[in-house]
Amino acid sequence: MKLTVCLATYNGEEFVIRQLNSVIKQLTNEDEVIVVDDCSKDRTIQLIHQTFGERVKVHVNERNSGAIKSFEKAISLAKGDIIFLCDQDDVWEDDKVATVLKAFQEQNAVLVVHDATVVNGNLETLDSSWNHYNHNNLKQGIIGNIVKNAYTGAMMAFRKELVSDILPFPASIEMHDQWIALVCMKKKKKIVFIDKPLMKYVRHGGNVTGMKKRSLSEQIKGRLRTISAITRSNRS
After folding, report:
1. Which of 178, 133, 170, 171 is nearest to 153 (CA)?
2. So what's the pLDDT on residue 215?
3. What is the CATH number of domain 3-232?
4. pLDDT band of 212, cuts 50, 70, 90
């Protein structure tokens, strides 16, 4: 079973090598790592090339396109049977890949989501559970997940069969991870939750995803756009 790890980078020179080291040591030579860089202005690309050479496939966007489009491109290039999503500044625990694969193999999952330890930029623990820290309810349905997204891309892996259902990402969605979860729910695909923290989820204020604060009106408009996208989707 071939694996693909999809990672979107942007000005990640401070953390990305640490993260890639934690990922690659869990993979076989048959597995692939795809990085889509969103026009970094620092040494992110150079450091990846210098450290990993051809082991990591790097694609650079022609223009700054944002995290959603970067992950869309990475997923579209993936050749693995199982696709892991990965942020540039976290650290995977040594048993993440093995534990997630076991869930796919033993529980016939299409999407696997796990918990994480929440840490600061120095890897000091802020909370032993991201689900607790962020008040996530992973058992809620479509409406509940539109109101408050409980799915985090960095803690997701899914079977390649799901790609044709989720791509291309609609332009109106707010988050790619929320969209993936919503499509799985709509199509009644099996989602397996792993309570164990399988990575260190870094919250340091400079994260590319997950740190934006929006006004109430912006939140409402975003949710309405997401409702429209999932309603209009013919992926039922």
Report:
1. 178
2. 76
3. 3.90.550.10
4. low
